[in-house]
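Duplicate of earlier report; Helix-turn-helix domain-containing protein input re-posted below.
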Amino acid sequence: MPEQHATVTVLEPADSSAVLLTVEEAAWRLRIGRTTCFKLVLAGEIESVMVGRLRRVPPEALRAYVTKLRRRPAAAA
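Output:
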């Protein structure tokens, strides 16, 4: 019987000098899933811009999002 190998995809960190990030790169930097990041972008929680048909995230938008999260009152448990 042939051996089966799992496929692992490794997303390399984006260039820290990048002017705009893909949504996948933004997700990687925030350590969240790609789908979650797309939901946040489409909801306007994370700022993004369209470059032609491509959606891109300015790196400073990630810091602004985290700052906004830190300023929100903690939800009562």
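The mean pLDDT is 87.

Merging into the original ticket.
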